[in-house]
């Protein structure tokens, strides 16, 4: 394999000190360790990396022995987390190959093979994510043209796009996320392979997709991601009950704005907004059938959430909070003076009120009086 080693001196201040420490310890023990993946890519694009991952030729057990405060994680693929505080750790992964062993019937029976750096390069997803940085020589190591792609602002997939999306359909939503986050162009073959392979996303475990959804929408460009997922026909495999409206747009823009201002955000709000319309439609249908509206509300909320968790699993605490927000809407809309105090002291008031405010500014302009009422009530 041809390799390009390009000397690039990153400002030391931009590199994570703990990651450098880990690399130095592994190198001193006679192994090779590099920064890899998203951090190298982000540094080259002048962005602040989210985390600093390390790849090495040392086996997990060997890495584990080098660090007192480290632990082995993962069952199939063992990784090492070197702990620096209760919340901060550096992840070290041993080079591995993308080789799979299949039984006669084609089912994958083993895919956890360690390998060389050349193997490790090709099992990654995109060229821009397959760059390594040698901190000693201050060189970027590039086997596949990732450096050129970064310069040309392009994303190319490693290997055959159809096959690589088949092997792991989550790569399709990763492509959309990187395109949007990094402001890059997807190669034509990625685009057409996504259109073709989008339905495969339906086979991914609902638990994995929950994690991916947070990454998709809790950032500074959530609405663009939403629009692209829709355009490429991926959105319906995450949220089949969700259809774009002004409320969703406002909520996503609002979330991004909060993140820019370093304010806190919660997935509760996002899912409550995405499913609101479906909930309402179901509620109306049920209320027409039975006269008890509170029963209809509870039943509608449960049905919509059950449908959702078939695609993207939501933790139980999150579902409870979503229902609370929805069920509080009519109570806020009634503006009963006698209930003001109790509602204001309800722990869910803040979220339900924010929800109502966004509705009044988008799909329910008739609620502007109600919004004013609650703004005044809090003064
Ligand atoms: P970010 O952290 O900004 O989301 P990242 O590229 O670091 O981006 P991670 O999920 O942290 O993404 O993964 C680290 C690296 O592992 C990636 O850069 C890529 O090389 C590899 N990788 C992650 N997920 C996959 C996948 N589904 N298929 C192949 N390689 C992957
Ligand atoms: Mg990362």
From TrEMBL:
Residues 296-379 form the Polymerase A arginine-rich C-terminal domain. GO terms for molecular function: ATP binding; poly(A) RNA polymerase activity; RNA binding. Residues 183-243 form the tRNA nucleotidyltransferase/poly(A) polymerase RNA and SrmB- binding domain. Its EC number is 2.7.7.19. One of its GO terms (biological process) is mRNA processing. Keywords: ATP-binding, mRNA processing, Nucleotide-binding, Nucleotidyltransferase, RNA-binding, Transcription, Transferase. The keyword Membrane does not apply. The keyword DNA repair does not apply. CDD domains: NT_ClassII-CCAase (cd05398). Residues 33-155 form the Poly A polymerase head domain. Pfam families: PolyA_pol, PolyA_pol_arg_C, PolyA_pol_RNAbd. It catalyses: RNA(n) + ATP = RNA(n)-3'-adenine ribonucleotide + diphosphate. The active site is at 51, 53, 125. Transmembrane segments: none annotated. Belongs to the tRNA nucleotidyltransferase/poly(A) polymerase family. Adds poly(A) tail to the 3' end of many RNAs, which usually targets these RNAs for decay. Plays a significant role in the global control of gene expression, through influencing the rate of transcript degradation, and in the general RNA quality control. PANTHER family: POLYNUCLEOTIDE ADENYLYLTRANSFERASE FAMILY PROTEIN. This is Poly(A) polymerase I. It comes from Candidatus Ruthia endofausta.
């Amino acid at each position: 394999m041809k390799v390009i080693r390009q000397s690039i001196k990153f400002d030391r201040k931009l590199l994570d000190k703990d990651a450098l420490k880990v690399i130095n310890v592994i190198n001193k023990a006679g192994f090779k360790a590099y920064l890899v993946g998203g951090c190298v890519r982000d540094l080259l694009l002048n962005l602040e990396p989210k985390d600093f991952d390390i790849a090495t030729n040392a086996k997990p057990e060997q890495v584990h022995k080098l660090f007192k405060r480290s632990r082995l994680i993962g069952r199939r693929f063992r990784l090492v987390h070197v702990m620096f505080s209760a919340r901060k750790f550096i992840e070290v992964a041993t080079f591995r190959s993308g080789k799979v062993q299949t039984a006669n019937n084609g089912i994958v029976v083993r895919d956890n093979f360690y390998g060389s750096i050349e193997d490790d390069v090709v099992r990654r997803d995109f060229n821009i994510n397959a760059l390594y940085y040698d901190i000693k020589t201050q060189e970027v190591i590039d086997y596949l043209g990732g450096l050129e792609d970064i310069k040309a602002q392009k994303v190319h997939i490693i290997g055959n796009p159809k096959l690589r999306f088949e092997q792991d359909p989550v790569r399709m939503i990763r492509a959309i996320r990187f395109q949007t986050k990094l402001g890059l162009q997807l190669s034509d073959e990625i685009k057409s392979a996504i259109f073709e392979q989008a339905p495969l996303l339906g086979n991914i475990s609902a638990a994995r997709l929950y994690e991916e959804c947070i990454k998709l929408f809790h950032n500074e460009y959530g609405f663009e991601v939403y629009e692209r997922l829709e355009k490429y026909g991926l959105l319906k495999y995450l949220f089949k009950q969700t259809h774009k409206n002004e409320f969703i747009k406002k909520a996503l823009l609002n979330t991004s704005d909060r993140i820019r201002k370093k304010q806190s955000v919660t997935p509760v709000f996002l899912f409550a907004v995405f499913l609101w319309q479906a909930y309402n439609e179901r509620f109306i249908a049920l209320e027409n059938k039975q006269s008890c509206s509170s029963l209809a509300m509870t039943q509608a909320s449960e049905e919509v959430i059950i449908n959702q968790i078939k695609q993207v699993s939501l933790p139980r605490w999150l579902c409870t909070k979503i229902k609370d927000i929805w069920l509080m809407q009519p109570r806020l809309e009634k503006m009963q003076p006698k209930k003001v105090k109790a509602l204001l002291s309800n722990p869910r008031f803040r979220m339900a009120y924010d929800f109502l405010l966004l509705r009044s500014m988008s799909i329910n302009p008739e609620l502007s009086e109600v919004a004013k009422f609650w703004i005044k009530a809090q003064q």
